[in-house]
Amino acid sequence: MLCLVPTPIGNLEDISSRSLKVLEESELIFCEDTRVTKKLLNLLGEKYNLDFSNKEYKSFHSHNENQILKTLDKDTFSKNVVYVSDAGMPCVSDPGATLVDFCIKNQIPYDVLPGANAILTAYAMSGFTQTTFSFYGFLDHKGASRASKLDEILNDDKLSILYESPHRLLKLLEELNEKEPNRTIFLAKEITKLHQTTYKNSASNLFEEFKNINIKGEWVVVIEPKEKVGLNLELNDILPLDLPPKTKAKLIAKMTGQSIKEVYQQFLDKIAE
Known about the structure:
This is Ribosomal RNA small subunit methyltransferase I. By secondary structure, this protein is α/β, with parallel strands linked by helices. Helix content is 39%, strand content 17%.
């Protein structure tokens, strides 16, 4: 069986007792980086008086995963197998998804334990009330692809969450300030760590503030959605218009993203009331 185990993103106490039990009972551990995982298990062993010796470690990351997958079969998972990334939840801006897909295709039992991840923590910390968001990971460092993705983010009608390095955070704030100076941005630094800090302000104010800050640490950025303009019409607003029902349905469907058939049925139900 395979078990994906989330690891702390900064604070060792965030690991669950269930995760510790699975790690202690594991025989083979696939790791994003074996050195990082061995160091983590040494720290956890000292803190919780656990024995993580006699484990087999194998590297499994974005550069070798296809090669490693070719060497696996069902017998590999006849023992207790674990996958951990360097920090946080496997598969979320981290390797692991191809291993899960391998298990699904080969009918190998697997489980994913809940645990620490920066995305949901930053979302909860942000104070934004929107219930949907898009996650973009790290943007490209430069070029047309970065500019295109940033435009996509600024036109998204959902919250946008992304990661940024300390070396490029000021550049991102400068880009946001140039394009949408009044857009509200939430920044979370070093989540769960000693120097955890948060900021929430307009892009322009944050850019000015961060010009004078020695930017360090790992950052999560949450960007306010694009304000909807003219999308608050309801059936009661459209129904009195002197238009054929199907035209009204197409209009509402275009504005809301619903299917024409679904909206048309709502019109029929409304008329029948």
